[in-house]
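Box 4.2: Ligand-aware structure prediction
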Amino acid sequence: MNNKRKIIIDTDPGIDDAIAIAIALFSEELDVKLISTVVGNVSLDLVTENTLKLLTFFGKNVPVAKGSKEPLFQKFEDATNVHGVSGMDGYDFGEPNRSNLLEEHSVNAMRRTILESETPITIVAIGPLTNIALLLKMYPEVKNNIDEIVFMGGSLTRGNKTVMGEFNIASDPEAAKIVFSSGVNLVMAGLDVGLKALVYPEDSQIIKTFGKTGDMMYSLFQKYRGGSFKTGLKMYDSCAIAYLLCPEMYELTDTFIDVETQSNLTLGCTIVDLKGYLKKAPNAKVCTDISPKIFKEWFMKSIKKCI
Ligand code: BDR
Ligand code: CA
């Protein structure tokens, strides 16, 4: 047994997901036990295909399980405007090796992986929370062996899918509600920090020199519309991995969080009760701010290792 932190990544690649996954796969501190896919940026079939393409590209042997095809109640709306029609436009990965794809549903694969683990597992959720909500509802016994759920999603202020809704949470607000009220340790790395986790053109030029990986990432960056290539690309999902590997980049506070599931106008808006108006006990650690300088140093160092 190694001393690495065991994680499950639940994801919807997604260009920024792809970068976050790469960092996790090459970190000496993390042991990726399973990648679970969820409908989000593009369809479930495409996000699963993209995950397999990444693992094939990096020659990594991690089990992949396919999860939810649809949000719990909401209609699926993709983010092809941000990630392209394939979800990872810009680079030709070729056909992936499909031998890592499990037959079981990802909710069952997560349950098995968590219950079989000798030490508690951390879930890193970087897509809508549909699979995680189902896992916690169907198999509450897993809670005893989950260290924490670190998710990229929500916002202290505005949204990016709707006026007030951040994409991952607003795509499946009912799932987020289940996760937020689950009693499991939660860490929220939301839009507020994601908007400051930027890759600038000069960084991209350096990344381009990082061999085959650099070429792949640079090509994806040309198509990615999470921000702009010229003024800064937003590495939202890397913020969740960064919490595990370099938490000193964050300002954190224990807070009560909830999500709006009723109003048409603000559906999926996260309520982060920093001032304690609701008089509720904290249910999450929230990243309220990030040092862009530390993020950048950590990010560039991490990408360089992805070979
Ligand atoms: C989130 O939305 C998705 O498009 C990104 O992959 C990220 O997980 C940012 O709001
Ligand atoms: Ca994502």
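In the box above, the bound molecule is calcium ion. The mean pLDDT is 97.
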